[in-house]
């Protein structure tokens, strides 16, 4: 079974005091509001949550259900996170830490951790998975920063699946569809499956490049 491990680390500056950010990190309803892809987040007690995440990012269209546990709790400072989620044909296992650093009227939210992707989704390849993960984290933290700063209207999610692709890049999808059609007509199912996966990896690399270019654009 395929498996990929993604390392994440970063810092999000938030224009408010640390107490306001910490209040959100403890509130399931406000946390859910800061995660546009989160369909449901239920507090189970004992600093454990059950949630449903619906991810739409490029070729990644997945729905996960799972459990999140918060450990090593330091009030007003941070905590560690252990999570496990299940999709139709894959499993996610993650662990990390979130902590706050106050700097006057600005709070720096630091995060670090690892996510292991197990199953069919891992076949897309690490570069694309890392790009999608960074985009989702940036999207969620931007919304969290808006809530913590007291803005009633959170920042609208920047869904990578809505990225505009230049016409010449769209041509990368055409050979794959033609290949699928020809092989299916010839009855070569096994060859189709292998060729499809190779094409999907190629598409993932191209889309990862496009997403990276978009995130770096001013």
Question: Short summary of the structure?
Answer:
The protein is an alpha+beta fold and about 220 residues long. Helix content is about 40%, strand content about 40%. It folds into two domains: about 160 residues, 2-Layer Sandwich (Alpha-D-Glucose-1,6-Bisphosphate, Chain A, domain 4); about 55 residues.
The CATH homologous superfamily of the largest domain: START domain
Total beta-strand segments: 7
User: In DSSP terms, counting alpha (H) and pi (I) runs of 4 or more, how many helices?
Assistant: 6
CATH class of the largest domain: Alpha Beta
Q: How many angstroms does the end-to-end distance come to?
A: 40 Å
Could you walk me through the main structural features you see in this protein, from its secondary elements to its overall organization?
The protein is an alpha+beta fold and 218 residues long. It contains six helices and seven strands. It has helices at residues 18-25, 28-33, 126-148, 167-170, 173-186, 189-216; strands at residues 3-14, 38-45, 48-57, 60-74, 78-86, 90-103, 106-119. Helix 3 packs across helix 6 (189-216) and helix 5 packs antiparallel against helix 6.
Task: Summarize the SSE layout with pairings.
Blueprint: E1 3-14, H1 18-25, H2 28-33, E2 38-45, E3 48-57, E4 60-74, E5 78-86, E6 90-103, E7 106-119, H3 126-148, H4 167-170, H5 173-186, H6 189-216
Helix pairs in contact: 3-6, 5-6
